[in-house]
Amino acid sequence: MKDETQIDENDALDAASEALDAAIDAGDATQVNAVVAELPAHEGLRLASLMEADEHAEFIALLDAEQAAELVAEAPSLLAASLIEELDVDIAAQVMQLLPSGVKADILQEMARPDAEEILSAMPTEDADELRELSRYEPDSAGGLMEPRTFVFQNDETVGTLLRALMQEDDEFEGFRGKHPYIVDSDGKLVGVVSLRNLLRHPRRTPLAEIMTDVMSVPPETEQDDLADLFEEHPFLAIPVVDAAGVLLGAVSRDQVAQAELERAEQEALSVQKVSDELRSMPTLLRSRRRLAWLSSNIVLNIIAASVISAYEETLAAVIAIAVFLPMVSDMSGC
To answer: What is this structure's pTM?
Structure first.
């Protein structure tokens, strides 16, 4: 039953690939987007990686911003950067705005500075400045992982102000539901945090400064391992990130760190197997050449090992137990 399911999935993917090729050849953007919309993002990315360079560029150019953003978000940073660079600048800017902040920063770090600046110049000034700031930090640091937009209020605002913001049907606040609001002073320095549960215990006119509590924060250079340890030790959903002066820069969430840890574990596992996401997503011919180079080296090393074994043929015949070690010698020569 499992084999039949696998065959059905492969047939469906082959059919999608054929439909996609036909749509690209016809320059039919509507059909290209329709085919990709029916596929999981990782399958769409897989089909894109199997295309030749010229077809690949046509494919990306025919995608609308939403579909392109889904594929880019699924791709490793280096491949994502190459996908973005194949788009027109205006479309690339739209795609970048649809991506999570951390993903955008990672992509910018992989791009050549002139290309990155060209795309940033096509984005709204506020978003572009935010991205320039994020791309300064290492991807596996608090600054690289943080979300710069936080649920923040001034310390002289009241409980009523905060509650009204929570009740607004506004996209700006929608993503902050369930998160604790951070409190800053007039200079933007983090001074505390307010528990949502605690809000309901005080009159609406109460200043937030009176009910806020101290909050743990980290500098943007904090490494991913240290962040993982902090989340292991404390039940925080997020940790605010502040600069040397204490100004709130953003917040890194438990989910962001967990996702980064998972991605790193996957990369380490692939590295042990001598496989990388970059290699798996390369065009077939390029991937074959790189694999052939690795296999050729193994062949040479195994020939050398065979020559050594041949030189001691008489010894092997006299002490047959030594033959037990031949597979070990062969395997080590391959390594």
So the answer is: 0.61
